[in-house]
Amino acid sequence: MRMPYRHKRRLLVFLSIMGPGIITASVDQDAGGITTYTLAGARYGYALLWSIPFIVIALAVVQEMNARMGIVTGKGLADLIRDRLGVRVTLSALLVLALANLANTVANFAGIAASMEIYGISRYLAVPAAFLLLSWVVVKGTYRFVERLFLVSSALYLVYAISAFLAEPPWAEVLKAAVRPTFQMEQGYLIMLITVIGTTITPWMQFYLQSSVVDKGIRLKEYRYARWDAYLGSVISGVMVFFIIVACAATLHTHGVRVETAADAARALEPFAGRYASLFFALGLLNASIFSAAVLPLSTAYAACEALGWQTGVDRRPREAPGFFAIYLVMIGMGAATILWPGLPLIPIMFFSQTLNGILLPFILVIVLQLINDREVMGQAVNSPLVNLIGWGTAFLMSALTILLLITSIF
Q1: 345 confidence band (pLDDT: 50, 70, 90)
Q2: Helix-helix angle 87-118:262-273, to 10 degrees
């Protein structure tokens, strides 16, 4: 049966628009994120699966808001913050972003080193090679080339689903845990819940998605396709989180195995799920680490240059946007150099970066909600009451969880 012409045309338009939402949501599953989901499954079994549908809905709403702002205004988030809220707020937001992104970039190079060591390749070879590869791809590539490369990388996250099925979990128990909320007033559980949310909905993604929509040149008449791109990316992200937690819960938690990193989990999976499950998990970690080590510094470069009024864009040459490429190269250079420093405590850095994302998220999210409800900025494209309810609810929830964490830490 042949597809009607109008449906075929819509599909082709969507495929041309598709990219920013899927890439941004996929990068949320970086080395630090995978470590977080690994620890969530290994320590708490299936107990946190119930949070994934709520996280997906919140992520979809946040991504759609940023895509809409970029399309309507033609400006990145940092550019809008500077115009509407002033230099002081802009610098505060940039400080938040740079601190979290640097820690996350270090975490991703740690993921590159750890995953390659599983395959018998030294970090002293793997990390410099990754630095050179990422430098070449972004500095020499065009936006279209880089985006296609990132989309291929997004597709490779399917290896986590393979690992989960090879682990042979009790699917009835898994599905029951996914629909039955459980909550524990215990510090470790609260930290894990904040970190799971914080690594899935992050400050950096709000800057990157909006800037990439602008950089791609998506127009207002194409908005509905960009919206579905944001929604599809959020669903894919949630599915991958689900499979990572299931794979680790079905093997490591069930057998009482304690791990500290995603690389530990990849090695530990082998006795319970087989060699292929272990190798697929390690491949997923490598893919996620390289992918994220490229995108996170890009979000910092976009935001900093927009705030300072400098030229931005992957399509530009280094002589046209020297500040943009310099910031990118400095970020990945610092991330790579840090991992080669002997005796560095990588696990605290990785977990701290994700917890920091969760704590700082309300600050950036409140700014986004202020801007997108400003009729001078958005005209008739301001939030609907339902979108505002979910957006403000997410900001409130993260603030409440952070306060609960502080209370349990003190008492």
Answers
A1: low
A2: 40
Q: CB neighbours of 270 closer than 8 A, spacing ≥ 6? A: 277, 278
DSSP state of 250: I
For residue 350, give Cα distances in angstroms to 31, 107, 160, 199, 231: 8, 5, 20, 11, 27
Q: Give the sign of the dihedral formed by CA 161, CA 286, CA 57, CA 19.
A: negative
pLDDT band at 138 (very low <50, low <70, confident <90, very high): confident
Its sign, for the CA torsion 88, 90, 96, 101, is negative
Surface-to-core class of residue 181, CB atoms within 10 Å of its CB (0-12 exposed, 13-18 middle, 19+ buried): exposed
The one-letter amino acid code at 41 reads G
How high is the pLDDT of residue 411? 57
| CB-CB contact of 350 with 261 (8 Å) | yes
Which pLDDT score is estimated for 406? 60
Model confidence at 7, in pLDDT bands (50, 70, 90)? low
- Calpha distance 203→214 (Å, rounded): 18
Give CA separation, 264 vs 28, 86, 241, 254, 326, in Å. 20, 45, 18, 16, 34
Phi, psi of 256, rounded to the nearest 5 degrees = 65, 30
**Is the predicted pLDDT of residue 218 greater than 90, yes or no?**
no
Measured CA to CA, the distance from residue 28 to residue 340 in angstroms comes to: 24
**169 close to 250: Cβ distance less than 8 angstroms:** yes
Question: What is the DSSP-derived secondary structure letter of residue 19?
Answer: S
The span from the CA of 145 to the CA of 202, in Å, is 25
Maximal CA-CA distance, the chain: 66
Contact yes or no for 141/294 (Cβ under 8 A):
no
Q: Quick one: three-class SS letters along 285-351? A: HHHHHHHHHHHHHHHHHHHHHHHHCCCCCCCCCCCCCHHHHHHHHHHHHHHHHHHCCCCCCHHHHHH
Residue 312's closest CA among 109, 129, 70, 28?
Answer: 70
Whole-structure pTM value: 0.81
Contact between 369 and 388 under an 8 Å Cβ cutoff? The reply is: yes
List Cα–Cα distances, 107 to 32, 94, 254, 303, 331, in angstroms: 6, 20, 27, 21, 12
